[in-house]
Design goal:
By secondary structure, the chain is α/β, with parallel strands linked by helices. It has two domains: 170 residues, 3-Layer(aba) Sandwich (Rossmann fold), CATH 3.40.50.720; 117 residues, 6-phosphogluconate dehydrogenase C-terminal fold (Orthogonal Bundle), CATH 1.10.3660.10. It has eleven helices and seven strands. It has a seven-stranded mixed beta sheet, with helices on both faces. β6, α5 and β7 form a beta-alpha-beta unit. α3 packs parallel to α4. The longest helix has 29 residues. About 10% of the residues have low confidence.
Length: 303
């Protein structure tokens, strides 16, 4: 099902790009700041639509998805909902609904919350955010993860599939645990490790900076991140990221032992250290080759 009316709740480059992508196909888009979908606005009736949109897209930080979803449902923003961070908002439904119910009690509403999640599907477009300008083509050809729960209705899934089609994205259906593990390995842990490497240059040391090459700047570019947003993302995926970092930590232990052994007076130890170093470097080279072969000339990062 192709949605013809969409409410985009939130702001930023991704929300603006989504609005542009949908508008070029004639979709009626309503861009709603997050504060107009909040508890106070809901009680006052602010931001409530004349009629529900076919689909509402929550372009808000991960920690806000469950609460904003509850309030949007309460004022009847849409027939179906999705987000753009891939979080499982159903996991935080009890707390979010508790807040919404508290607001409902104050206004006397008897139907403040929902008891099911058939109208919700977590989503996560993997976009290239190297530029700061909104673009209608931001999602074209990019993966858009959809993580339905057993409660997600077929109609909700079809609406979100229609959204990805309008944006030119490639839908990838997977469960939440697989999504979180994939993001930890492909985006979250690499960003953290890059940040740790970049921190070696703070405070600035002019004699070192004079020796740096442009390649190093490009290598460290992922460390130039929105700390508030990424702290939120990492809190939401801490377990999966920790698992990847533990793997890296184990390899670092092997690497340190190998480096310490290269000057060993024992020839056998020196040879073993040489082999360990070579093995780790070969693993890194082969991993890079796999990623490079998949992308074959396409540059870009994911959030």
């Amino acid at each position: 099902m192709i949605p013809r009316t969409v409410a985009v709740v939130g702001g930023g480059t991704i929300a603006s790009s989504l609005t542009l992508a949908l508008a070029r196909h004639g979709v009626r888009v309503r861009l709603v700041p997050e504060n107009l979908a909040g508890a106070g606005a809901a009680e006052a009736g602010a931001g409530a639509p004349d009629r529900p949109a076919d689909l509402a897209v929550l372009a808000v930080p991960p920690s806000r998805v469950a609460t904003v979803l509850a309030h949007c449902r309460r004022v009847g923003f849409a027939e179906a909902y999705t987000d753009m961070t891939g979080v499982d908002a159903t996991a935080g439904r009890d707390a979010a609904d508790g807040q919404a119910t508290g607001s409902a009690d104050a206004t006397g509403s008897a139907d403040a919350t929902r008891s099911d999640d058939s109208d919700y599907l977590a989503g996560h477009p993997l976009t290239d955010l190297t530029g700061s300008d909104a673009s209608a083509g931001l999602f074209e050809g990019r993966p858009w993860v959809l993580a339905p729960t057993p409660a997600t209705s077929r109609e909700t899934l079809n609406r979100v599939l229609g959204l990805t089609a309008l944006c030119g994205a490639v839908p990838v259906v997977m469960d939440h645990a697989s999504h979180d593990a994939a993001m930890a390995r492909t985006a979250h842990a690499p960003r953290l490790l890059t940040a740790l490497l970049a921190a070696r240059f703070h405070p600035p040391q002019p004699h070192l900076l004079r020796l740096t090459e442009p390649d190093l700047c490009e290598l460290l570019r992922p460390a130039d991140l929105d700390t508030e947003l990424w702290s939120d993302l990492l809190r939401g995926n801490a377990a999966a990221v920790s698992a990847v970092l533990r793997e890296v930590s184990a390899d670092l232990d092997v690497l340190l032992a190998a480096l310490e052994g290269v000057d060993s007076p024992d020839a056998t130890d020196r040879e073993q250290s040489r082999k360990q170093l070579a093995h780790l470097l070969e693993q890194g080279r082969d991993g890079y080759a796999a990623v490079a072969a998949h992308h074959s000339g396409r540059a870009g990062g994911v959030r």
